Each structure stands twice: as C-alpha cells, then as structure tokens.
Amino acid sequence: MNKTIITVVGKDTVGIIARVCTYLAENQVNILDISQTIVDGFFNMMMVVDANQSPKEHSQLAEELESLGGEIGVRIRCQKEEIFDRMHRL
Fold first, then answer.
1. Over 60: is that where the pLDDT of 36 sits?
2. Measuring CA to CA, which residue among 37, 23, 32, 31 is closest to residue 70?
3. How far apart are CA 61 and CA 51, in angstroms?
4. How far apart are CA 40 and CA 32, in angstroms?
5. What is the rounded CA–CA span in Å between residue 72 and residue 50?
6. Residue 87 pLDDT
C-alpha cells in the first residue's frame, strides 16, 4: 500500500473538506483515516490516504494539492508515510 499523509491547516471556511475530498476522489486516492478539528476559527485536518490506484505520481499529487490549498486559502502538505514518520520520530 502506498500510504500518504495529507495535512490541511488554515482559517476555517465553508467547503475545505469537500474540495480536498473531491480532488482525492477524482484522482482515485482512497481515504483510510481522517481527523479534523477547528480551534478558535482555525481549521486543522490530517488524512491518511492510499494513493496506490492514482494515475499520478506522488510529486504531482503534492503539487496539485498545494495549488488547491492556495485556491481555498489553506496550506496543504502531502508526504509519503515513511518520510512523515521519520520527521516526527521522538
């Protein structure tokens, strides 16, 4: 499985989850787990996804998600699971 971690952070607005999930569905990326919170008007979401069936390479997905984030006013990061784990190791 090609697990990827996607994080979304920014001011809360209507449609953030819808836009991100629509992009993922259109690119055959399966959401395995999702968590989101809103604290004092700030939106924070973390997703674990499987990009195995996507026709796009990880780098293209990451670039397009970053661009989508710019369109909707949030910051979207897309990292392969093993890189995310190494960065957040205690």
1. yes
2. 23
3. 9
4. 27
5. 23
6. 60
